[in-house]
Amino acid sequence: MKSMHKEKRRANIVQNVILILLGIVVVLPIYIAVVNTFKQSDLILNDPLSIPIPPILDNIISVLKNPNANLMQMYGNSIILMVAGTAITIVVASMAAYYLARVSTRFSKSLRIYFLIGIMVPYVIVYLPLCILLRNMNIPFGVPILIFVFVSGNISFASFMYTNYIHSLPIELEEAASIDGASQFQIFWQILFPLIRPCTVTIAIFVGLGIWNDFQTPLLMGQVKTITVGIYTAVGPFSANWGVVFAYVFFAAVPVIVAYLCAQKNFINGLTAGALKG
Amino acid sequence: MKKKKMSFGFAAPAFVIYTVLLVIPILMAFYFSLNKWNGFNEMTFIGLNNYLNVFKDSRLGNAVGNTAVISIVVVLVVNVLGLGLAMLVNKASAKSNIFRTVFFIPFVLSTVAISFVWKSILSYNGVLNSMLTALGQSGLVGNWLGKQGPAIVCIILVEIWRTLGYHMMLYLAALQTVPQELYEACTVDGGNRWDKFRNVTLPLIIPGMSVSILMSIINELRMYDVVKIMTDGGPGYDTETVVYNIVSQGFSNNMVGYSSAISVVLFLVIGAISIFIVTKMSGKEVEA
Predict the structure, then answer these.
(1) CATH at residue B239
(2) Max CA distance (Å), chain B
(3) I want to staple A126 with a disulfide (CB 3.0 to 4.6 A). Which of A194, A230, A253, B25 is the partner?
(4) B102 and A155 in contact by Cβ < 8 A?
(5) Distance CA A221, CA A211 (A)
(6) B84-132 pLDDT, tens digit each
(7) Residue B252 belongs to some domain of the structure
(8) Which of helix, strand or coil describes residue A197?
(9) Do A252 and B113 count as a contact with CB atoms less than 8 A apart?
């Protein structure tokens, strides 16, 4: 009995050592990026692991003052895309899901499959034809059309999640409201939409974070200066001024890390739910 | 009771946006792939010639090879390690919670931010080499991103680093569906830890495992951002992936027809793999 106890403790120690070592590997690059944001360039290469005391703000200031990269504009574009793209996705996908979940005709079933196809699509197939389509329709590249591009790419996932969720809710409440004379529109917005809130939170995080972090779409669809594309073009492919690079990364990552630490459970659910339900 | 018929109007906005901005472009890609076209001049119909060229293109062949190596290694490592890690943190304790939170951080960050950080570490004039020099190990200094082999290894490491926490979470969710009684029953029957893993854990997490494997395959087959930023496909075309190749042929070389043909093939490959895994694994599911 005693030896078993000992063995268990030893196993526990081994497990902890593995976890701590892997934890260090995960955190180290992030640590390097954070501490070196506040160091002068020569010190970054000579002593990358030390904590800067006192912190030097040169890198941050040079990023804020870079005339070729308007940080506020990048944040503005990213925030507009994220908020509008997420909101529109939620509105159109939840409404579509209401129809898909509550009407069982041949047509609605086919429509469900039609919306589902988008989940498998490697998005790279879409960019070039979409650019040509917009060019032919004389629609200028920029934030407004990009919002709808993001919506189109997220409808499959969002309507799928919502349809399953609405399916699991009892229909009686809607029927009762219908007898009381509520219109379908009222039933959806006043009764159903509040009930599907957990699903909305999941979708909002998945879609919102996806838009915030997306690089390929704004890069290829007109080089719209979001935070990701802005940083990419500001740094350029050949820069080795790591202090400035870290400062840009700092600005891109800090809002996400703060949001993640405040709402971890929601983030983890949001990002894994897509896979688990799919 | 009079049942009001629900109108298609509810689905119409989603239908229009999805059709115009996603489905029509995909159909256009299929159509372009049958033509020779630079995006501006007259289109020439050439049937399946683009597809024949896909299989003869040595630059694309190299990109396919890179993508295959990256995918195979990353998929194996993140799934094995992800399951192992999930088992280690599958306890309700403050310590497990902290590890879960930490391991998941790289997955919420943008690939752009991550890739720049790793580039600053791995570049020839980057942090790793200067640390090696400072430690008196200048013999170990290497041009990690400047040669095909080491650069592919670096890309693989970054992808593992980035997605490991995500796969850990997928496995954790799967592990939490395994009923505790089954482990107890296994202990009563004299089973050791390996028996428990073999006969209880593994069969019951097969659905979760198939999801995790599928997601990792799809993620790696679509790989673009990390390569774009860390090596820009170079040196030469050495570290190109398939998606990088499609973008470069389509957007830089204006080969609209040809790049569409490659992306159609990629679409079909991803579709086939998805359907294969979903059907194959759904036959093996075990009810808890």
Answers:
(1) 1.10.3720.10
(2) 86
(3) B25
(4) no
(5) 14
(6) 999 988 887 878 888 888 999 999 999 999 999 999 999 888 888 888 8
(7) yes
(8) helix
(9) yes
